What does this fold into?
Amino acid sequence: MARDSCDGCGRPVSVAGGMENVWTFGQDDGSDGTAMTLEFEDGTSHMLCYPCLAALPDEPTDDDVERLERVDEETSTLGAR
It folds into this structure.
């Protein structure tokens, strides 16, 4: 499972899938990551942890991603504009 950091808050994340999981099956098949990559309407993409995904508005922009802040291990919030 690939490891990286969240584009929003910077917490370490794992991304499901990838070449290192191609021959694994069952419970440890690499399908459980802690982040997901979103592609926005403007063509940009951001890898975000699930707490940051939950903090984003319905139609996020790059500005929303830049305002993401880590509160603790389980929550993120949008900072002031």
Observations:
- The chain has one domain: 2-78.
- The first strand starts at residue 2 and ends at 5.
